[in-house]
Write a structure and sequence with these properties.
With 291 residues, this protein is of the alpha/beta class. It is built from seven helices and 16 strands. It has a seven-stranded mixed beta sheet with strand order 10-9-8-11-14-16-15, with helices on both faces. It has a five-stranded mixed beta sheet with strand order 1-2-3-4-5, with no helix packed on it. A two-stranded antiparallel sheet has the order 6-7.
């Protein structure tokens, strides 16, 4: 159920390639590799952090909890961000279980879904813990949540249970994204809205290799075939991969949807900071289209 007075997530400050975050009751420090500027808050604010995540050269990283604190047990750490309650689980990659930079896209997805005909189907590929799925469901769409990891889908299910307004509005699919899209195309199943946040690199169950640089064009072409563009529709593509720019991501979407190229918009995903008005941390790119 919804937790009353769920504490929020806040980005307190950034700088020196780090970010200082208030994640519910805990203050943490994590890397922010593009925050080249100096921090705004004094060092004592950063030193008051409850935990610090540091990357290791061998991959992944290590969480250090200070002042005798231990990492909270699963289920005891919940925050609210972007009108959704999330279960926080720090991973060895330094992730928390939601990407705060998607907040602007979630608002866009709620608005876009509310514009669709009643009962419209939408699809979230590479869906992770459900932020975009939940936003579409909150906008009134029938949302399909697809991820290749059963564990991630279980996590997203727990997030759904924390939000009363999401019950009965989501279809859960554990599958390879490309294979699922191909089957939907054969079945003639169409969607009015599609979200894609593909990884930079990955391997399928049969060892097939995914590289965003070489495979994104084919993915967009496949998605184009299952998107109903006869009336209102939308598509959102996000990316955290080096080598892409907002312009290049937007151009990929324009190429996949040439009849709607003029309606494509692209930009940087931003997390607003509380340290000073108007400041934000850029953290990835988006390209999106709404008709």
């Amino acid at each position: 159920m919804n937790k009353p007075n769920t504490p929020p997530y806040l980005l307190l400050d950034t700088g020196s390639c780090r970010k200082l975050e208030q994640v519910g009751p805990y203050r943490i420090v994590r890397p922010a590799l593009n925050a080249f500027w100096r921090p705004t808050l004094p060092e004592k604010e950063w030193n008051a952090a409850d935990a610090v995540f540091e990357r290791q050269s061998t991959g992944g990283g290590v969480w250090t909890w200070k002042r005798g604190l231990k990492q909270p047990e699963e289920g005891n750490w919940i925050v609210r961000w972007g009108e959704v309650n999330f279960l926080v689980k720090p991973t060895h990659f330094g992730h928390l279980g939601f990407f705060a930079e998607q907040i602007g896209n979630w608002a866009w997805l709620r608005e876009s879904s509310a514009l669709l005909p009643a009962g419209s189907d939408t699809l979230n590929l590479f869906a992770y813990s459900g932020g975009a799925t939940f936003a579409m469901a909150q906008g009134g769409a029938n949302a399909c949540h697809l991820d290749a990891s059963r564990g991630i889908i279980d996590w997203a299910n727990k997030n759904q249970a924390l939000n009363n307004d999401l019950k009965g509005k989501i279809r859960w699919i554990c599958d390879d994204a490309m294979k699922f899209v191909a089957r939907e195309q054969r079945r003639g199943h169409k969607y009015r809205g599609i979200v894609l946040d593909p990884p930079s690199f990955g391997r399928g169950a049969q060892g097939q290799v995914w590289k965003i640089e070489s495979d994104i064009a084919d993915l967009l072409a496949s998605v184009r075939a299952i998107l109903d563009t006869s009336g209102r529709f939308f598509i959102l593509l996000t990316c955290h991969s080096p080598g892409f720019s907002a312009f290049s991501l937007g151009r990929m979407l324009e190429q996949a949807f040439p009849d709607f190229a003029a309606q494509v918009e692209s930009g940087e995903m931003l997390i607003p900071e509380t340290s000073a008005p108007g400041r934000a941390l850029p953290a990835g790119l988006y390209a999106r289209l709404r008709n």
